[in-house]
Write a structure and sequence with these properties.
1 helix
């Protein structure tokens, strides 16, 4: 499964110019905390993270998180996610679509000597699929990024809206969560190393989880990035026993959607 996730990529049109996309820290690629910078204007990015999680109850969850982003305006992008999950319990496996998610991110401020980069992101999940949540939900997330040479610090905080209902198998919107990450760039190797800690409350009144993750992003080709991460719950009986994610993303442009190129 890991190999299939790494080999699967889609080329819709001629790829965009070479870039250092490995420094773009997307959510779940490979850690939950993301940076405050959007996709480039008129650029598409297709992402295929695969994740495996072993729960405390010995339940196993496989997930393929198909995602498409588009830089629709300067300093902003929109996107959609279609997570497909497989839940293994007591020798049985249940497959299904775990909802649909639409999101938008806008960067209000790039870094300055006094202020960090700052963005707001909004998400909406829809109860579509056999493993989806029972109710539609939304969330609003604040994102800040500050650079110190090769190092960057990121802080994310999000709050969810709407009825809790039955949660989806994967990619649910928490009642709230907050996390911080530190990354370091290895320019010669085109590698980004990341470590994070975050706390979350999945639904109102649920125990609060504390989780830690580590990962890396590598620019395999000019427009293709590979990522690998691992995480674990830090509170006894809460969070995953362990979780692993591996993914690939491909950036491209469609000439007909770019001004002056028809």
């Amino acid at each position: 499964m890991y190999g299939a996730a790494l080999l699967l990529t889609i080329t819709v049109a001629a790829p965009a110019a070479a870039q250092i996309d490995y420094r773009s820290l997307d959510d779940d690629r490979p850690t939950r905390v993301e940076d405050a910078y959007p996709a480039e204007r008129y650029a598409f990015e297709f992402l295929i993270p695969y994740s495996f999680e072993r729960g405390r109850s010995r339940e196993s969850v496989h997930a393929w998180l198909f995602e498409l982003e588009y830089g629709v305006i300067p300093n902003g992008h929109v996107g959609v996610k279609a997570p497909v999950a497989a839940i293994q319990t007591a020798g049985r496996t249940e497959w299904g679509l775990s909802g649909l998610r639409a999101f938008a991110l806008y960067n209000f401020n790039t870094e300055s000597p006094l202020l960090p980069a700052f963005s707001l992101r909004g998400d909406v999940t829809l109860p579509v699929g056999s493993l989806a949540a029972s109710e539609a939900r939304g969330s609003l997330q604040a994102i800040a990024t500050r650079s110190f040479g090769r190092n960057r610090i990121h802080v994310n905080a999000a709050y969810g809206f709407g009825p809790d209902g039955t949660p989806p198998a994967v990619e649910g919107l928490d009642r709230w969560w907050i996390g911080a990450a530190l990354d370091r760039t290895l320019f010669r190797q085109s590698v980004l190393l990341i470590g994070e800690v975050y706390v979350r409350q999945p639904i109102e009144g649920a125990p609060i989880e504390v989780n830690a993750s580590a990962g890396l992003r590598w620019q395999w080709r000019p427009t293709t990035v590979l990522d690998l991460g691992i995480s674990r719950g830090l509170r006894a009986g809460l969070g995953p026993e362990y979780a692993v994610t591996v993914g690939i993303s491909n950036a491209f442009a469609i000439a007909g959607l770019m001004p002056g190129r028809r």
